[in-house]
Specification:
The structure is a homodimer. With about 325 residues, the first copy, chain A, is α/β, with parallel strands linked by helices. Chain A has 13 helices and 12 strands. In chain A, helix 10 links the parallel strand 6 and strand 7. The model of chain A has no long low-confidence stretch (mean pLDDT about 95). Chain A binds a DNA duplex (16 and 16 nucleotides) through helix 2 and helix 4.
DNA sequence: CTGAAAGCGCTAACAT
DNA sequence: ATGTTAGCGCTTTCAG
């Protein structure tokens, strides 16, 4: 009835260990027998039992991702799922499967403990949103293979990976300069908005590198909303001289910025250039469509997979790094 | 060093089978010994090995989801991930874990075959986007527990679950009628756009039920884009008498519709009401914010989990059904 | 209510 | 290059 490795070995007239070796591509098997055994496996429609393999080898070829996935997360934070998709794809190519596990910051630690103790996964990925000190302590003390998706906002020895917003800011600045803009302004989130802050720093660096100064009066910081974006732009445009381009820290601010420019009677890009970060969510509906520095978040997931598998193979590896594959998508808001 | 069930049994002074029974809450164990054994397990910091359990029981407590997850899927189709989140949560509450597996329609069949043959999951969920005849045949012939997320566009015996767009259409119509609207129009996608078509049918039913007729000249169908939404609305508003409310089949069309109404110099909701489906993606940025029939897609995932687990327990169960938990979110676009 | 023992199907030393 | 065999850690009859 049920076809196991034993049956294959009997039919093929070899030992079970030989069959096992051809299953696992062991070098010591001659091509001749390997071929023969494969033929028998196919004839018998044999597939090795996955649970038995895990049990025998002791590893699961499974990674579990701990992340907050409360209602509407997919709408509010599609970035996270794009990372997940990248993680899954890259893991799969390396022979691992990805288990999704929704949780909150409070329960995450116990969950991780359970996963590690029960050996139900070979590694853990944790979305930075649910990261905590206890979890960091657990992961590092038990030296369990892990990767945090995003940089934790506290010091620790955990392995993490994140996009480099600073670099993206520099890319934006350099792009505008290369297009001939010289008097550039920045509107973004306040200091606790790390994404915005890093982008601002990057913009400053990029401009400085080109011998241009980002003047303080051309920097406005507020909440990341359409309304605040509008207000900041109004304030900005009430000053003289007017900037010839505005970099908005994110889509929401950009939405308000464009409104304000229109209401002021100015034209984009004729009178002023506008640029922002991320192609999502409003790139297709803001008029005109905006030139953006797009960040390849999926790639972040893919890199995370790569690192995690490396860590599983070399448990002492320590990774804390930024990865960046951002690129400018030129649209109608810049000349 | 490593603590197994045997060690627990030795320390506790009972047999391994007794320990196993307390792990699994078997009724035959006296509360006294159970308590004792639990204490020992805790002292020894014992956790049963997950792989060994799967191997011994023969089941994996795992469901794998097959879905297309190519780049930008999370942005283009966040609905899918919201379903996934609902699926995962509901599965987890029932003791199953969810494995994500990206694939395309072509490879899906071989993957399913592999999963089933190798017993690497107890059930399969398939996003309707990658559904095919061969896959349907495989699932039904092997009688493997499965659920398709979304209704396949061809007849088969597979188990599926979907939202009821027809019902949502009825809800929209009834709502408008209850608010006093009488001359209602519909703009939506063409016949091959099943979502739109079903919503239209539902609207018709809802109106008929209230003794109101949806006139043909008040139905405009085109592509689901902002531009077509604009054009259809222009055409609609060039007719007499003007409708007092427009139902847009989706967000994109609604976007164009609102533009056209504004350009025509009409005010929403004073001169005309507008309503659409789904709170995403543009609800927060369309001016005025639109009244919508919101569909609880996460709940669809949750229901799918429930059915799938039922099917695993009762393999002959056949499920092909619509589930619906849609509700009206009243905003500023209706009186 | 508890225990003994036979697997579950595969892998990996070790021997040949 | 191939075979022998001892596990991997837990579940589950079946006896007692």
């Amino acid at each position: 009835m049920k076809v196991t490795i034993r049956k294959v070995s009997e039919v093929a007239g070899v030992s079970v260990s030989t069959v096992s070796k051809v299953i696992n591509g062991h070098y010591s098997i001659s091509e001749k027998t390997a071929e023969h055994v494969r033929k028998v496996m196919e004839d018998l429609n044999y597939y090795p039992n996955a649970s038995a393999q895990s049990f025998a080898t002791g590893d699961t070829k499974t990674i579990v991702l701990l992340a907050e996935m409360s209602p509407n997360t997919a709408f509010r934070n599609p970035h996270m799922f794009e990372i997940v998709a990248g993680l899954e794809e890259s893991l799969r190519k390396r022979g691992y499967r990805l288990v999704l596990h929704g949780t909150d910051s409070t329960s995450a630690c116990a969950l991780a403990k359970d996963i590690i103790s029960r050996k139900s996964a070979d590694g853990i990925a944790v979305h930075v949103g649910i990261m905590s000190h206890p979890l960091a302590a657990l992961l590092t003390q038990l030296r369990f293979p892990h990767i945090i998706l995003g940089m934790p906002d506290f010091d620790s020895q955990v392995c993490w990976i994140d996009n480099n917003n600073t670099y993206s800011g520099t890319v934006a600045a350099s792009y505008l300069v290369s297009r001939g803009y010289r008097n550039i302004a920045f509107i973004g989130g306040k200091s606790y908005d790390l994404g915005s802050t890093h982008r601002l720093n990057g913009v400053k660096q990029g401009l400085t590198g080109s011998g241009i100064q980002l003047e303080d009066k051309n920097i406005w910081l507020g909440d990341s909303t359409r309304a605040e974006g509008y207000q900041m732009t109004v304030s900005l445009l009430n000053q003289k001289p007017l900037p010839d381009a505005i970099i908005c820290a994110n889509n929401y601010i950009a939405l308000g910025c464009v409104d304000a420019i229109r209401d002021k009677g100015m034209k984009i890009p004729k009178d002023i250039g506008v640029m922002t970060f991320d192609d999502y969510p409003f790139s297709q509906i803001i008029e005109p469509q905006l030139t953006v520095v797009d960040i390849n978040v999926r790639d972040m997931g893919a890199q995370a997979a790569k690192f995690l598998v490396d860590i599983i193979r070399h448990p002492n590896m320590q990774i804390q790094t930024y990865i960046t594959t951002s690129n400018v998508i030129t649209r109608q808001s810049t000349k």
